[in-house]
Amino acid sequence: MRILVLGATGFLGRHAVGQLRALPGARVLDGGRAPGADLHLDLSTADPARLAAALREVAPDAVVNCAGAVDGSAVNLAAVNARGPAVLCEALREAAPAARLVHLGSAAEYGPTDGNRPVAETAPARPVGLYGATKLAGTLAVTASGLDAVVLRLFNLVGPGSPASSLPGRLAAELHRAGPDGSVRTGDLSAHRDYIDARDVAHAVTLAVTAPAPLPPLLNIAGGRARQVREIADGLVRAAGFRGRIEEDGGGSTRSAAVSWQQADITAAAHALRWAPRHTLADSLADLWAETRTRAESLR
User: Fold this and answer.
1) Where does the record place the NAD-dependent epimerase/dehydratase domain (predicted)?
2) Are the CB atoms for 120 and 220 separated by under 8 Å?
3) Between 38 and which of 29, 128, 221, 295 could a Cys-Cys bridge form, CB atoms 3.0 to 4.6 Å apart?
């Protein structure tokens, strides 16, 4: 089985590639802008016809799209998150219409919820910012493509390798810089989020690639529990043995203010993929801290 992973060198791409390569008989090819990629491309600027030609040569049985942008200008977000999936779908229809497409979406597509019950895939999508809106456009391009495709709508990510653009990754790095007795300033930690380990996402990707039957167009991938963001700080403090001060200044992102509570209904993924999260939040944070410390020490 030939599996092409786009965005293979990113946070989620690295985890997905690692698990996909463990599949018996799988040949995993990486696609992206990194030097040495098996398929060198930038979906944000790719020409559909040229991409189709490249896909004919690769002849994938499955394509996993982990490419995405979480910040930047409106032009960049639209190019990567909206145009990219649309171009990919057009090229796949031309060059590899039988290939399964697994595309990674975002819980930001849902926007505000009522705070009373988990959000299911049938809930209306009402993103509150450019990121969520562009991710939703990408999801719609995939679900309307007519391909054998599924969008895994991911909730808040955590685990080893969490980037500095995420709260867990940023806070782990700041705790390391502060030392055991320093102080770290954070924004508002009162919102509730549903966290999922990147390794559990990679497991869901692997199951989605290999599932024999047609899949639902959209599946939530999450921990299935709303947790106060403060639990992330508390868990990293415990993992780090931090004795200093966490100063919560009350600031925060516009999205956090607009979406104060999110929890996913993960029933559909359990039925369609026989998937469930395997990592506890404590394990995810302990592994994130260990990876942060090891990486920092290797740079000395």
Assistant:
1) 3-220
2) yes
3) 29
Catalytic residue among 11, 131, 155, 195: 131
At position 199, the amino acid (one-letter code) is R
Rounded mean pLDDT, 163-167: 93
Number of residues assigned to the chain: 300
Interatomic CA distance for residues 277 and 201, integer angstroms: 8
Nearest to 216 by CA among 141, 269, 142: 269
SS3 letters across 14-82? HHHHHHHCCCCCCEEEEEECCCCCCEECCCCCCCHHHHHHHHHHHCCCEEEECCCCCCCCHHHHHHHHH
Q: Cα–Cα distance between 64 and 181 in angstroms, integer?
A: 43
Active site residue 131: yes
Q: Does domain 2-298 have CATH number 3.40.50.720?
A: yes
